[in-house]
Design goal:
Blueprint (H helix, E strand, L loop, with lengths): L11 E3 L1 E2 L4 H13 L5 E4 L2 H4 L23 H7 L9 E5 L4 H14 L8 E4 L3 H8 L6 H18 L3 E2 L2 E3 L1 H5 L4 H22 L4 H10 L1 E6 L3 H22 L12 E5 L11 H12 L10 E3 L12 H16 L14 H23 L7 H21 L30 H16 L2 H15 L6 H10 L3 H12 L17 H11 L7 E5 L8 H12 L3 E4 L6 H11 L3 E6 L4 H14 L5 E6 L6 H6 L4 E3 L6 H16 L1
Parallel strand pairs: 1-10, 2-3, 3-4, 4-5, 5-6, 7-8, 8-9, 9-10, 11-12, 11-13, 13-14, 14-15
Helix pairs in contact: 1-3, 4-17, 5-14, 6-8, 8-10, 8-13, 10-11, 10-13, 14-20, 16-17, 16-18, 19-24, 21-22
Length: about 650
């Protein structure tokens, strides 16, 4: 009888999850772990990510929608109840408020007798990609980098098994980055931060190799999976070379390119969403087939995430995909199956050389933090190119612009996605109010004062942050102190840097615009609430500008009152509102009501991740049109805006 072949250990299997409340999310985590998930990946809601408490005006409609709200230490206790911190490897998708969430995690572990030196996990903590793509930034680049450096330095001494920064190219691809841009911009971010760590004097030369080895990456895997395999092989080679040549890291293990992955969400479709299953599987292969460039952890989206929050069953399906690949196939019994492949080696070299040239260009601009405006413009232009290719049919998306014939399937219905109860917001407001009333306020005040003092000094921020977490401070209180010390930031929109290319149906719309009585339409593009995913709003703004319209777009994270004031002052013909966070039913009717109360009669349209069941209620509330991701033809939307302009003017 032949011996069983030796198998490699499988990657860490995660699902990115969290919603509603800490208690509901804890139940979900326990369920997923019982089904074979081997690590946690925590999704936080937008108020937590941007440093607000649930009772902040900025948090209205956003609490618990795209992740779990964590406003204080009590929430983290509940969130991780029954999940031993010394045994679990936890990934936290948190950036601007990463130091605060790590402080809560450390404080919770210490309550259970687990020292920080024994903690394993990752804080994403990549603020550059927030400026470029995801939008959950708070502070300007320089103080943001200081917070990252302080976390890295603190972890090197007190939590050496923790990855204090997870350089995140995932969202760059979601914002339109080519593979070359994804490689170059993420490497530039890592170099910028590591240079700052070295210059800070907080880490000795002897410890710098350990710091380099603690930097991990979080990448995207798109549908062109041969190209994605080569992209990861190129990143593996480049990171090893950067460690050895730029930083003098002699230990090959410390130079190893360690990355986790979530496969592409940008390519998931609302139309024929069942096609997303095979997309997810193919994209998973792109980060698992090549042993030399295999992911250390994988989390897969669910087939229906283009529609809304997946149910526990949907997450189970995605987990089972990983388990079938890892445990039923023979993938883990072999070395790298692509070694010696002429195709793979040539494509890897092509991507590596092009990415090095792009990286050198970014470094010549002063690095990633200094070049944010330029990089944002390049990404918006890349996304505009992708959008035009899909609209023209040059890039096929099955079920969207080709093979659109379909039959009714069994996966739909009202239970297909998870809906967060709107009452969660009020529940969390009551919770945080009770938390504040029950704590030692003098201890909190002292901790806040110490945090403010340290923030204005050059001391490491982490000890004072951990002290505030233990004293009972809240996310919003931490955010308020840090905003006062560092100020707030508005990232560039990048819209002005996308070169127009007016062809086909959009050229016909441009002709209508030129002939319009009263001049071109005035379009106000607005993003209310805390949702920072601005790709859709940016592409609408670019297309409208290309069609000859006057576009007013000031970026993300506006209050309803700010949008109303802008509409009153700018007198637009049409107001286009983009929401992807699930807060549309709370915010959009309120916006229409306040506009009309101010005498603004502009037509209001909305776009985003909006379930079909919510379309008619929004129209009944006064919206002129509602667009979802299946409405991918920008020329059609632009033509609708011209029609609404004519109606508004008459």
């Amino acid at each position: 009888m032949s011996e069983q072949p030796t198998r490699d250990r499988p990657w860490m299997m995660r699902t990115y999850s969290g919603h509603s409340t800490a208690a509901a999310s804890n139940a979900l985590y326990r369920t997923n772990l019982a089904k074979g998930q081997t690590g946690l990946s925590i999704a936080f809601d937008l108020p937590t990510q941007t440093g607000y408490d649930p009772d902040s005006e900025m948090a209205r409609g956003e609490v618990g929608k795209v992740g779990v709200p964590v406003a204080h230490l009590g929430h983290l206790r509940t969130l991780l109840d029954g999940i031993p911190p010394g045994e679990m490897n936890t990934s936290m998708t948190i950036n601007a408020s990463a130091s605060w969430l790590l402080a809560l995690y450390v404080a919770n572990a210490e309550e259970q007798g687990v020292a920080s030196v024994d903690l394993r996990g990752t804080t994403q903590n990549d603020i550059v990609k927030e400026y470029l793509s995801r939008g959950t930034y708070i502070f300007p680049p320089v103080p943001s980098r200081r917070l990252i450096v302080d976390m890295i330095a603190w972890c090197s001494q007190h939590a050496p098994k923790w990855n204090p920064m997870n350089v995140c190219s995932y969202h760059l691809q979601e914002a339109g980055a080519t593979p070359v841009q994804e490689i170059a911009y993420s490497m530039a971010t890592a170099i910028d931060v590591l240079d700052a760590v070295r210059e800070s004097g907080q880490v000795s030369d002897d410890d710098f190799g350990q710091v380099f080895g603690s930097i991990s990456f979080f990448v995207n895997a798109g549908i062109r999976f041969v190209e994605e395999i080569c992209k990861l092989r190129a990143m593996t080679e480049m990171w090893d070379r950067i460690g050895e040549e730029r930083y003098g890291v002699t230990d090959p293990k410390a130079r190893r390119f360690r990355y986790g992955v979530q496969v592409n969400s940008l390519g998931l479709t609302e139309a024929q969403p069942e096609n997303n299953v095979q997309r997810i599987v193919l994209e998973m292969l792109g980060v698992s087939l090549s042993k030399r460039a295999r992911a250390r952890s994988i989390q897969l989206p669910a087939w229906n995430e283009a529609l809304g929050l997946p149910t526990p069953w949907d997450q189970q399906w995605s987990l089972r995909m990983q388990q079938v690949l890892a445990f039923e196939t023979d993938l883990l019994e072999h070395g790298d199956i692509f070694d010696g492949s002429h195709v793979m080696e040539a494509k890897t070299a092509e991507l590596r050389d092009a990415a090095q040239a792009e990286l050198d260009d970014v470094l010549s601009l002063g690095g990633a933090f200094e070049a944010v405006d330029t990089l944002k413009s390049r990404l918006v232009a890349s996304m505009a190119d992708r959008t035009r290719r899909i609209e023209s049919g040059d890039q096929t998306v099955v079920g969207v612009n080709a093979y659109t014939e379909t039959a009714d399937g069994p996966l739909g219905g009202s239970e297909a996605i998870l809906t967060v109860d709107p009452a969660v917001g009020e529940e969390m407001i009551a919770d945080v109010t009770a938390w504040r009333s029950d704590r030692d306020q003098s201890a909190v005040d002292a901790a806040l004062a110490e945090l403010a003092r340290v923030a204005h000094s050059d001391e490491n921020i982490m000890p004072a942050t951990i002290a505030l977490a233990k004293a009972g401070g809240t996310t919003g209180e931490w955010g308020s102190v840090m905003r006062e010390a560092f100020g707030e930031y508005r990232a560039p929109t990048g819209v002005g840097g996308a070169l127009g290319r007016v062809t086909g149906k959009l050229a016909e719309v441009a002709g209508r615009v030129r002939d319009l009585d009263g001049g071109p339409p005035r379009l106000l593009v607005a993003k209310p609430g805390l949702d920072g995913h601005s790709n859709g709003a940016e592409q609408i703004a670019v297309a409208a500008r290309d069609a000859g319209m006057e576009v007013i777009y000031s970026g993300i994270r506006l209050t309803i009152d700010q949008i109303v004031a802008s509409a009153r002052d700018e007198d637009p013909d049409v107001i286009g509102v983009s929401i992807l966070s699930g807060s549309h039913m709370e915010l959009l009717p309120d916006l229409v009501g306040k506009l009309r109360a101010e005498g603004v009669e502009s037509a209001v349209v909305a776009g985003g991740i909006i379930p079909e069941a919510d379309r008619q209620p929004l129209v009944d509330a006064g919206l002129a049109a509602v667009y979802t991701p299946k409405d991918f033809e920008l020329a059609t939307i632009m033509s609708d805006i011209v029609d609404l302009t004519v109606r508004h003017r008459t």
